[in-house]
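Standup notes
- DV: blocked on the single-chain target, sequence here:
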Amino acid sequence: MSRTMKDGYDRRAVLVAAGALAVASPTAARQATEAAAFTTELTTYPSNGKAIRAAVFRPTANARGSGVVLMHGSGGIGPEQVVLGELFAADGYVAVVPTYLDAAEDDVVRPEPVMNAWRDCGSDAIEWLIGQGIDSSRTGIMGYSLGSHIAVDGALGESRAAAAISVAGGWDVYTPRRPLRRIPVLLISAQRDTHVRPVSTAHWRHFLIENEVPVRARTVRGAGHIMNRRQWEQVYAYALDFFNGNIGRPS
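- DV (later): unblocked, structure below
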């Protein structure tokens, strides 16, 4: 992979639940990279009448004309999503990190109206990218844990995303709906995940295959549901390779 996450990464004011979004507080070396490779901004976009807050990372050079949406897990936006946004932007993608909890509060029960609001939040982030001038065929969405279901299940519904990635997602998260679309999907599992078991991810993969969705699977060896820096680097390498081959090819 062309970029790596730095040791000592420190967040500065991320906390979406408290009303702010996460932004990095980089070291001097990372700050120089950031200034040269991408810019960061905060924005909002509409979804079902609600304002969804999001961080946007834009490449300053070598832009691919492609965009990705990154959906967080049930705990809200964490440093993983921020760093992924930076890495994708440094590799030429416009990256959007929204907080889908603005679309509906998490009551833990997660009835269908709540799940629909969250899936719509992801689909509307794709629409925001399209509104920025990015062709729908060059948009993708990626999610972690609960966000993996929101990303992939939403992309296989009425979204215009052209590719989707799940990280640590599967049948243990939520029962998927029957797909309406057939776009490329990548399922990344963590080998030692006891929260979303790899067998659950495999179940989802077989379900997608049965429904004629082109799906690939990768595994992060030795990883649990909560991954360390090097394991997230492996996730990024898998994700970048997949998106490069589907939505990020040079124009």
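- Follow-up: Residues 184 and 214 are 5 Å apart (CA to CA).
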